[in-house]
Structure formats: C-alpha cells, structure tokens
Write a structure and sequence with these properties.
The chain is α/β, with parallel strands linked by helices. It folds into two domains: 164 residues, Aspartate Aminotransferase, domain 1 (Alpha-Beta Complex); 261 residues, 3-Layer(aba) Sandwich (Aspartate Aminotransferase, domain 2). Helix 3 runs antiparallel to helix 10 and helix 4 packs parallel to helix 10. The chain is built from 13 helices and 15 strands. Bound molecules: 4'-deoxy-4'-aminopyridoxal-5'-phosphate.
Length: 438
Amino acid sequence: MSTLVSQRTADAAAVRAGQTEFLFPCAAPYYQEPLVLERAEGVWVTDAEGREFLDLFSGILTTGLGHCHPDVIERVHEQLRTLGHTSTLYLSENPVEAARRLANIAPGRLKRTFFTNSGTEAVETAVMLACMFTGRSEIIALRHGYSGRSVLATNLTAHAPWRPLPTSVPGIKHIVAPYPYRCAFGSPCDDRCVDAFARDLEEVIQTTTSGKPAAFIAETIQGVGGYIVPPPGYFQRMAEVIRAHGGLFICDEVQTGFGRTGDHWFGIEHWGVEPDIMVMAKGIANGFPVAATMTRDEIAESWTAKTISTFGGNPVGMAAVIATNEVMVRENVPARAAERGAQLRAGMDELAESHAWIGEVRGMGLMQAMELVEDRTTKAPSPRRARALLEAAKEEGLLVGAGGLNGHVIRIGPSLLITEEEVAEALARLQRACARVA
Ligand code: PMP
C-alpha cells in the first residue's frame, strides 16, 4: 500500500447505521450487508473490516487506471495547493489543456468541449445543444437506455425502475433497442434486423413526431441495460436516418469512452461513425466528478444564450483529466483493453460452457457481461441468480456489478491497467463464485 494511504479505520457498523439514518434510502448499495470501503490501490480495494477484494467494477467503470493512481494523485495535490477553484467566469490553463487533449483523441471534427460534473449534466447539455442548433425539440432515444438522474435524463432513460416519476418531458420517443440476444426482429440479429431498426426509427419519426426531430441519442453499448452491443452496421444506418430528417446524432460514451471497449478511444469508432455531439464522464478523470460534452465548431457556436457552470472545468478536476489522459496515452489503454479483454472474455466463455444459466456472454474490450437466465430455451431473466452471484463473488473476494432491465446481467469493467495475472486471478474467483451459485 502507498504511504499516502491514511491509516484511519472506520467502524463498519457505525457507517452502516449512519448511512441508514442520515442519507436518502433511494440510492441503495449492493449486497445484503453493504460493503464499507476504506482504501484502494490498483484493482484492489480493502474494506473497513480488513477484507481485500479484487475490483472488477471500478466504481461503475470509472477508475480506468485503477484506484489511487499515483500520477493522478500527484497532479491533483499539486493543483489543490496552487489554484483550487475558478468558476467559468475566469480562464485558467487546465480546462484549455484538458479540452485540447480530448480533441486529440475524439473522432473527426469533435473539437469543442463543455465541462460539467456528471454524466447526467453532460447529457442535459447535449440535448439542449441539439435543440438550439436545430431549432427543434423532439428527441428519439432507445428502449433499455440509461441517461442519468435529472428530470430530462430520467425521461430519456427507458427502464421503469430508473424512472421514479411519471413521464413529464414531452417530445421524447423511444424506439426498439438493438438487443441481439432478444432481438425484436429476428435471430441471428444481422443486416436484415439493422434494416428493421432503421425502418423503426424512420416510422417513429414519421408517425409520432412532427417529422422534424432534434436528435437521436444512444449509448454505443447500453451499459445499465446490461452491456447490450448493437450489431455491425447499426450506427451507420441510424445516423443516416436521423440526419436525413435534419436531426443530430448524440452519442453517449459515458461508459464506453476512454479505451474501455478496446482498440479505440471511443466505442462509436468501432462503427466508424462521427457523432454530431458526444457525451462522456466516468473514466474521464479516474474518479473525479468531471463530465464533458463535445461537438464541432458550428454546433457549439449555436449556443448563444448565457450559461455558467460553477464547478464545470474546475482546475482540480481538470488536473485529474490531464493526468488521466497522460497515463492513458502513455500506456496505450485501448490496446491493453483489447488484449486483457480477450483474456477475460475467453475465461467467461468457458464459464458459460459449464453453466446453462449463463444465457449469453457479450461485450467489447474490458466491458464484458453475462446475461443470466432460468434456462437457455425460455431465456427467462434470472435476477435471483444475479443477486446470488453478486453475493457469492463478494464471498470470493471479487467485486462485480449488476444491470439489465431485470437486474439479471452481471457486468464487469475493471481497471484498463489490469494485469494478465490479475485477470487470471479474477477468473479463478469468478469460477468459484459461479460454482457456489450452481
Ligand atoms: N449516461 C450513461 C450511459 C450512464 O451509464 C450514466 C451513469 N450510469 C449516465 C449517463 C449518468 O451519469 P452520472 O451518474 O454521472 O450522472
């Protein structure tokens, strides 16, 4: 453990009691007995009871360089000592340097950045921008999609459990999700289905909107939805259709950005499509609350009304963006994610051979999931097995995530710097956890 780590030890029972007494109950933690985390380094986290866990979920795909990366810590400390806060009313070097670095890795003409503090805010910024640029207000989103927790974002989100209020934002239409394992249009989900998805978008525009949509918004891989990977050719067709109707394509890279999917910096590059607006958060600053909305010049220039973000582009958060980017470029994380992702995937595919309740293994790079079913014929979702596997993995010292409409998908997204030995160790633990559930 690094010498920077504090030696304080929390009283786990007191933390759990305090959580119950003082925090909102709606943000429910994982596990029957929630984990109280105390320190972490790389892929390892230690709880207040001294137990060590191999973390395959990285605080929801966020600590892409692993926990407490020394370069990020160093740069953030230095910045905190120099200039901790400015607001967008004053210029400073860090937001400019951070934005320049994002422009270097973003596809095509995406060059301008607006910094905010969460994925939700970045989505809000993207949708407002699309409405301003087009002078329109209708948005097409995907079923099974997740966009965040504000009023607009929960209305864009298409999972009843994540929509706490009745629909309240008009003009949002949800089309059929490209969900190959449960494809609405055929199996295997191939080119014919891509045609059908495009027709669905076209028909929804023509029949349920004014015919003049502002944008189509989609995650490249539906993260909360359970790592749903659209088929080849999907985004090319969808971008064509929305653009043919004068709308923009907003790509949500909150989970898939920053090398996560392997080989490329952003998931959408696997489809070779340049989005009009791109949204990112999570892995951007290795755990600091930073998000970004990127677009090309003329779209950014269409926002002429006043706006401000007190914390957006905060010099300390920006220091974390810069340090994270430096390490990511140096370590070539897209290539590493592809290599370690292939190792992880091979191990998970092997597990699926031994357990008939693993309906499908899917994902890209170091973003891999297992959809759990009651049996492979009915494909009935099995949230009970997912709950059991989450607990069993914890018993084996392994942290994984859950997702999917029914909470029946096990989601994995470790540090992109995870080593070969750590992946092997994680797979051994996952195998033992699966055996417990079986
Ligand atoms: N978009 C996607 C694809 C997400 O996965 C999330 C968060 N899970 C968000 C937006 C919202 O991000 P945040 O929780 O930072 O507001």
